[in-house]
Amino acid sequence: MVYSLIGLSLAGCSKGVLVSIPENLQSTELPDKGFLVGSIGASTIWPSTGENLKTTLYFSRTDSEQDITVSNSNDSSDFHSTTATSSLFTVPLPSGNYLLHTITFIGTDGRKTVHTQTDKQLDLTFSIQPDEVTYLGEFIASSKVSRSSLWNTDYPNGRGYLTHSYAIERDRNFFYERHPELTGKHFNTVTLKVSHSPLLKLQPLSGPQS
Prior knowledge:
Blueprint lengths: L1 E2 L13 E5 L11 E11 L10 E8 L6 E5 L6 E2 L3 E11 L1 E13 L4 E5 L6 E5 L4 E15 L6 E12 L2 H11 L8 E3 L10 E3 L8
Parallel strand pairs: 3-11, 11-13, 12-14
Antiparallel strand pairs: 1-2, 2-5, 3-7, 4-5, 4-8, 6-7, 8-9, 8-10, 11-12
């Protein structure tokens, strides 16, 4: 696995995002290539802020055990609101069936590094279509909260969870603005309905899906 910028300089080109893709999926000459798009970021609400968490999404083709990863670094971002920051990710991939199977978090409770991971595969499936965009939605990390026995105050304990929602119009417009050569490609929204882990909280999709 290597970090790289591939296919029209798309992968990992946003602020605060790192993308890792197996070498055999990195060819820019693949005739059936599509695009996986979404946004990843962190809550800025204290004390559940996720700004000190590194969040990684693990994907794979359903016929392969090779991982594609998308991570946030939280050192900069594309989008800012009163409650969160996030960045767009765009990953060129061969068409086919894929799944989001694992989420990991690395944070700190102020004394030691804390690792959190989904305890079983999420198995959230989606497909990449040739020359089309597959939109996965927005993932916002928050830290779980603990209470100090010494000071009786709440603090982020370094363990994370994700809230998934949709910012379709914002992300679609920003995608086309950043890559005007791809304007007009069909934008398909994936509906994630069931989470098999308390570390991923899904919010329903409302309105048109593409």
